[in-house]
Design goal:
Elements (H helix, E strand, L loop, with lengths): L2 E3 L10 H5 L5 E3 L4 E3 L19 E3 L9 H10 L15 H4 L12
Antiparallel strand pairs: 1-4, 2-3
């Protein structure tokens, strides 16, 4: 099993989760993070660190976020690894409570 970053991360990209990951399985895009399912060891330490509750165990991903399972796997192949805490998106606080942001992912 793996963990999945979902829609709440889009246009926020807080990296608190990255900082605690023991295997460096996070990948970063312009305005979103994903988890590489081939690297994730299912430790779950990232879940409580996410300030926007965007990370779920694969089996717990809400029905309306299921497409993010495949999206994480797809984007993880091309996006670079992120291993340290970095600045969130400059306007992250404006976006953290916004729902339905999938169309805003920058690839």
């Amino acid at each position: 099993m793996t963990h999945v970053v979902t829609e709440s991360c889009i246009k926020c990209k807080y990296t608190d989760c990255v900082d605690v990951c023991p295997v460096d399985c996070f990948r970063k895009g312009p305005n979103f993070l994903v988890i590489d399912p081939d690297e994730c060891i299912d430790c779950a330490v990232c879940i409580p660190e996410c300030p926007v509750d965007a990370i779920y165990a694969e089996e717990d991903v809400p029905d309306n976020q299921q497409d993010f399972i495949e999206l994480n796997a797809e984007l993880a192949k091309d996006w670079p690894s992120i291993t340290r805490l970095e600045e969130a998106c400059s306007d992250a606080d404006n976006w953290k409570d916004v729902k339905e942001k999938k169309h805003l992912i920058e690839k």
